[in-house]
Amino acid sequence: MIRFLHTADWQIGKPFAGIADAHKRVLVQQERVAVIARIGAAAHQYQASFILVAGDLFDSPTPTQSMVSAACAAIGKLPLPVYVIPGNHDHGGPAGPWEQPFFLKEQDALAPNLHVLLEPKPLALPGTMLFPCPLQRRAQSEDATAWLRDSQVADQAGERARLLLAHGSTQGFGGEPDDEESRSAAVNRLDLDQLDANAFDYFALGDWHGMKQVLPKAWYAGTPELDRFPKGADQQPGHCLAVEVERGRDPVVTPVPTGRLRWLQLERQFAEDAAVDGLRNELETLLQQRAQEDLLRLELDGTLGLAAMGRLENMLEQWEARLLRLKLQNRVQLAPTEEELFTLTQRLGDPLTSRVAALLIEQTRAGDAASETASLALRELYGASTKPETTA
Amino acid sequence: MKLVRCTIRNYRVHQECRVEFDPQRTLIGGSNECGKSTLVEAIHRALFLKAKGNTEYHRAMQPHRGGQPEVELQFALGAQRYHLQKCFGTNGTISLVPEGGQGLNGDEAENALAHLLTGADPARGKQMLEQWSHLWVWQGLSGSDPTLEASRHSTALFQYLQEKGGAAAVQSGLDAELAARFREAADTLFRQNGQPKTGTNLDAAIKNAELTAQRLEKARQRLEAADQHLREYQAAEKTIQENSRSLETLRRQKRDIDDRVRQVHLARKQEEVQQRQWQEVAAKRADLISQQERILDLETRLAKHREALEPLTAQESRLQQTAEEARRKAVKIAREHDQATQAVSQARQHRDLMQAVVNRFEKHAALSNLTEQAHQAEKLQKEAAELQESLARLPEITESRLKTLRSLENEAATAQATLDAMATAIEVVASNEPVQLEDQSIQPGETKIITDATELRLGNFARIRIRPGGGTTLEDARRRQANSARQFSESLVQHGLHTIDEAAELLRRRQHQETQLTALRHRLKQERGDTLSSRLEEAKAAATRADTDLQRRVELFADLPPDLESASQAARKADDALTKATQQEAKAKTLKETESHTAESAAERLETHRRILAEERASASDWQARHQLLEEASGNNEARLKQLELLTESECDAQKALEATRQNLDKLGADQVETDSERLTRALIQLEAALHEAHTRRAVAEANLRSNGIDDPHADYAAESAADTAAREHLAVEQRKADAIRLLADLFSREQRALADQFTQPLAEAIQGYLTCLFGPEARANVTVNEDAFSGLELVRPGQEGAAIAFEQLSGGAKEQVAAAMRLAVAEVLAAGFGGSLPVIFDDAFAYSDPERVQTLQRMLDRAAERGLQLIILTCNPADYAALGARQTMLSPPAP
Fold this sequence. Notes:
The complex is a heterodimer. Chain A contains 9 helices and 16 strands. Chain A is of the alpha/beta class. Chain A has 2 domains: 256 residues, Metallo-dependent phosphatases (Purple Acid Phosphatase, chain A, domain 2), CATH 3.60.21; 125 residues, no CATH class. In chain A, helix 1 packs parallel to helix 2. Chain B contains 18 helices and 20 strands. In chain B, 67% of the residues lie in helices and 12% in strands. Chain B is α+β, with helices and mostly antiparallel strands. Chain B has a 6-stranded antiparallel β-sheet. In chain B, strands 8-18-19-3-20 form a 5-stranded parallel β-sheet, sandwiched between helices. A 4-stranded antiparallel β-sheet of chain B has the order 11-10-13-14, with no helix packed on it. The chains are: A alpha/beta, B alpha+beta. At the A-B interface, helix 2, helix 3, helix 8 and helix 9 of A face helix 7, helix 8, helix 15 and helix 16 of B.
């Protein structure tokens, strides 16, 4: 029986460009290197003989020297071999990172335990044989596992446990485009049905960032540290897999949590102005006293009065400072209350202000781009007319 | 309010001046400096300057002739009349008495007056000047913007206008504040052209968005370049794989083709060898055939030559015979000729002998003749020699010499005669003393002839020099005589003569002898005596020779003629014989030559024939040799024929082998195979070059793909993309914020304007009423109200399609007129607060207006009067306003 750790999609060097604050961006980036130590701890805990990284160790085919050094240093600190295949992000070939001189130098100097499997060639290890299926390009149309369709290839392993290591999508599962990328689904497909299921003992897959068992012996480990807001609750990212294999037996797979940063999501629809205060309470409960450990996607909808809209904005400003990222989709419509409308338009002593307010309210109802401007203008006017001492 | 009457005293130029005002139209005329403006000023000071005071205004009104400035004014406010009297100065007084009411004095009166006129406390300082400035059109200020003055009364105006405008409300303080705030905010954000101002958030956001777009584009290009390098790498890689496969195939094809090429080469070589063999055999055969033909030909020729030789040989013997005969005959004839020649020789010898005998005789006769002649000549020569000798002994006197002698004699005689004539005889007659002539002593009685200068000494007594002939002449004569005598005697001596006669005799004898000698010599010459000896010698020699010759010939002939005659006869005979012999010899010679020629011709013909024959034989022999040679070389005819048969067979075999090889070449596709080989070689070269080039491209692309590791283009692109999105979002927010502010500012401005328009409408209508009097029915004015001030007075004239002209851009005249219209309108509006009337004073207010316009102005002024205003016009040209129908007052110039 062999124990090892299956992980993938470390995506080291991911820019997180959506985070405007440079400091916060660095914190999120650094976490992707920091998780390696946690994976090492898991390997120790589960007495793994080696670690398999099923592609996308780097986020980019052209990582910077500093990223390469950081990754190599972190890997080098692990007391066991790490076997890596190129994924679509860090594909093989001259355009990829693996042949760059500075990588080879750092690998040699810092991470002698790091083994990059650039060719589809069996690698015999004590008790197991690895069948790596590296990607040579970002978008590869041919199936990287195609070379294993010949059952004689797998039979070279004899009685060793046979581990297939591949990166790509299977039957609709795969790395879906995140915020910054998009990809055609026709590439990097792994057609595992074409392989003899009995010829292999475990399929260590990468690309899908959630943890997922796609076949009895085929698992996506998912990313060990979240790098996007997950879609759906069943994704379970932020894990690696501790695996026990033996030739001819089903693998025993244990998910091990490794993620630290929280990627939260919240959707709210405002029906009344008091809901703003409800949201405040909810967020306070969710985040408590934490700062710069969470990322939040907040989707707001509905309508708010002029004053409530102002309160919401002030509140969001405060939360934005505390969060590593506040990804806000604010579709809240301005709907002045009766009182506000009265305050604005029924000012007998200020005929000019009343007329302007009436015109703006009319414009906000047009529902076009100009209405947004009018809405903002109305809020300005409301603010100015109720607090004339502050400037516009 | 209307002015009724005014009296001023001690006010600058005026001592006392009183003016009554018409309730509607008053025209005050007067020349320049008669105090029209002073009058107007005095009324204004009475109304608005406190009486008590020592301000610059108080000081300025001090009279020229002393006294305290004083103004007395009566005016009506509605139905109420007032009497106002002010004495200005430090201790100034005021009295305001309403008709039928309680009079007021001091500050009470001042305050009451101020409230009456302005509704406020009295103005202080400069503000005083601004009171009722809309009604007081001071001289020189008629063209100033009347909105400024109107604004001073905005409160009252607004109040009235609001009343007139019905529901229209005036903007509140908050309205004004908000409008100003948003306008200010918008002006801070935007330029007049609507573009955002530098330094604003919006401007920064735009610039930032532009910057991020540029950076994104750069990042995109970098990524694109990397992708391009990768595509190039992959393309090169693909080319390398494809070309490598193609290269393998081509090389295989090339090997096959090269095998066939080798086969073709071998076959070609074989073909070449076979071709050569075939050609050689064919050549041999052809050679043999031609040889055969040549032998046959030779044989034919040889037969021909042999045939030709036979007659030639026969002819040769004939010719030989003929030649022999001719030769023999020629020899015989030659012998006969020799005999004839010999006969001639003998005849000649004989004749020569005879001639020698004759000659001998002749020579001897000539010799004896010459010997005789020689004797004669010897005698003559002897005579001549004697004569010559005799002549030689005679002195050699010639005619000329004799003549010379004679002349010398004459000359000597002459000289002697001369001398004789000069000689002096000295004779000593007696003397006691010895007389010595020179060295000779002359004894007394002795005579001495002296011819020269001679010293005669008489003892020691006297020495006397005697010079005959007077000296020199004597000497010369003596010398000439001596010379002539000497010459004459010398000539005689020279010729061995003694006298001249002897010389004459001698000459005669010489001449005679010489004549004789000449005759002798002539005879000798005639006798050829000079050559005689030589001729004699010759004759002797000839005789000797004739002797010798004869002697020699005698040996041949015994008989000789005894004498000359027989000899001559014999000689003639011999001569004839010789002639005969000679003729015979000549005949024989001719014959001999003929025969000799015949013999030579025959020999020659024989020789020629023999040569031809020899040639013919040589030729035949040559052909024979050739024939023999050929036969030796190629054997005899039979052998040759056999050989020919063999060769024909070989040729046929060779040809067949060649054909077979060629068929094989065709089968190998020789031509095509070489073309194919070339094609494949070419293709290989090109493919290898392409492969090499692809390797280079791959290497280049690979080098380009090598990351420097300093930055991550993919991460950069993601970052720039996000930054760009953020920048655009931020820009949209800023834009919306700015747009909102601008929207607010614009809305406030628009609504403010709408409100103001509603507000100013009655005023605008009032102005329009006056303007139509001036510029026609469509003329109108625009005035805007901003906050609490009027501004933006504009004139819209008919025919200008509503285009407004700002007040400041109007001409001087138009400014005056539009300003007047506005003032009248404001006065009309404000008059409501003053009992429906207000005075409006125009002090020389239309200085820039032309006379024609002044005429139309009167219509406007009249309209003002009709609408309740009190018009007071001051002018130095009252005639200009004649049509106004005003009450006219003329001010007199102040007393000097």
